[in-house]
Specification:
There is one protein chain. This protein has one domain. By secondary structure, the protein is mainly alpha-helical. The longest helix is centred in the first third of the chain and has 30 residues. The protein has 13 helices and three strands, in the order αααααβααααααββαα. The radius of gyration is 19 Å and the shape is globular. The two termini are 15 Å apart.
Length: 293
């Protein structure tokens, strides 16, 4: 049974679907207003114009807090607007499969660590950046807030939108592409897009399609959530730079400047398709074509 075919599915009611989306977006705006007020009144600056000497951990926390509002809004929408079990937005299984989550988390994390090793061995300008006075706080933020941020995004795009679109369109592949395009456009506001160009939006859309395929083929969000969580965890805790949205006191800093490097092309052209093959073999996915068309 696919995500969009479950009993008590999201709904074919356009009004309720749009109401829930409006509620989620309103909650995001409220969250952003709250952190902006905190930044202005307590810290003395705006998140629109963050001073260079601002505490990076504080800024990261403020950037992540609005996603807690989104997370709560989606769960409330599923439970009270659609009157549907909350688990059903995550998976078709009888319980959330943490083994799947951590399999994707550890596998993609290992690949990113290997990629970092190759970059350093090839002479890329990656420097040791460990700051013992801030790293523990960064670790706590990464463990507790980043999963909320990534889960909120997965719930909205691969959970709510993907399942909702699937009730309105005959072919699930249309829902996957539409949710991926919206995922890419949302990330178009990130500062790195202005520096690198729209090719980065293509990367986000491609990644959104990959995560959508993971969700549909595996009939649950566990793999997509694990991949997304470790991807952002790595960007915050392991490897940072001074031009992306996640600028932190990570263990390493990449000083190569804003570029769309070989790692990005390798990810969307080779690694993501390869992961689909690996997971297909691992979890014995069947009838994949029928899940898309």
């Amino acid at each position: 049974m696919s995500l969009s075919e479950q009993p008590n599915k999201l709904t074919g009611n356009v009004g309720l679907f749009l109401l829930s989306i409006a509620f989620v977006l309103f909650s995001l705006i409220v969250g952003q207003i709250v952190v902006e007020i905190i930044a202005n009144t307590v810290l003395g600056f705006s998140l629109v114009d963050i001073p260079k000497d601002a505490d990076l951990n504080t800024v990261l926390s403020l950037l992540l807090i609005p996603f807690a509002f989104v997370f709560g809004a989606i769960l409330l929408s599923v439970k009270y607007i659609h009157k549907r079990p909350i688990l059903s937005i995550f998976t078709t299984r009888s319980a959330f499969d943490w083994r799947r989550f951590f399999t994707a988390f550890l596998l993609w994390g290992a690949i990113m660590l290997a990629s970092l090793g190759v970059s350093m061995a090839s002479g890329d300008p990656v420097d040791w950046n460990f700051n013992p006075s801030t790293f523990l706080t960064l670790l706590l933020i990464s463990v507790f807030l980043i999963p909320i941020q990534t889960t909120a995004e997965e719930l909205f795009f691969r959970g709510y939108l993907l399942q909702g679109f699937s009730t309105f369109f005959k072919f699930p592949i249309v829902a996957i592409i539409m949710s991926a395009v919206l995922f890419g456009l949302l990330h178009g506001a990130n500062p790195e897009v202005a520096l690198i160009g729209n090719v980065l939006i293509i990367y986000y859309i491609s990644t959104g399609i990959f995560l959508g395929l993971l969700t549909v083929f595996d009939e649950g969000m566990e793999l997509a959530m694990g991949y997304h969580a470790v991807n952002n965890f790595f960007a915050a805790l392991i490897l940072t730079n001074d031009w992306q949205v996640f600028h932190t006191d990570a263990l390493f800093i990449d000083r190569s400047g804003p570029t769309f490097g070989w790692e990005s092309w390798l990810t969307i052209i080779v690694l993501q398709p390869l992961l689909l093959v690996v997971f297909a073999k691992m979890y014995k996915w069947k009838s994949l074509k029928s899940k898309l068309f």
